[in-house]
Specification:
With 106 residues, the protein is α+β, with helices and mostly antiparallel strands. It folds into two domains: 57 residues, no CATH class; 40 residues, no CATH class. The protein contains two helices and six strands. Strands 1-2 form a two-stranded antiparallel ribbon. It has a two-stranded antiparallel ribbon with strand order 3-4. Strands 5-6 form a two-stranded antiparallel sheet. Strand 1 and strand 2 form a beta hairpin. The longest helix is centred in the last third of the chain and has 14 residues. It is extended and about 60 Å long.
Length: 106
């Protein structure tokens, strides 16, 4: 693996598709390697890693900000709201998913 990279992933090439403007590679991650400096309790900590992202559309490099919400609970809240909007009036149920939980509420 590349010694200077804090996290690297070993990928097995599954398919290579040649398109008119670029090539598309489909792969399977077969191994992940991380420097201990970016781990918290054995898991990659995004805040410690501070990844750099490349966006082809804008041709710019980006960094990530802080967390905005917890996974899954936010999705359940959105789904509950959509389902509630589709129910006829008076058919609310008490077992609907909880409202969205944001990082501020956590």
């Amino acid at each position: 693996m590349i010694e200077q990279c804090k996290v690297t992933m070993e990928v097995k090439l599954i398919e290579h598709v040649k398109l008119p403007t670029h090539d598309l590679f489909v792969g399977e991650i077969v191994g992940t390697y991380a420097d201990v400096d970016v781990l918290t309790n054995g898991i990659v900590d995004i805040a410690k890693l501070k990844p750099l992202l490349f966006d082809m559309a804008s041709k710019k490099y980006w960094s990530l900000g802080g967390p905005v919400a917890k996974c899954w609970s936010v999705g359940k809240g959105v789904l509950a709201q959509r389902l509630k909007c589709r129910r006829p009036a008076g058919e609310d149920t008490e077992d609907a998913a909880p409202a969205a939980e944001t990082a501020r509420d956590a």
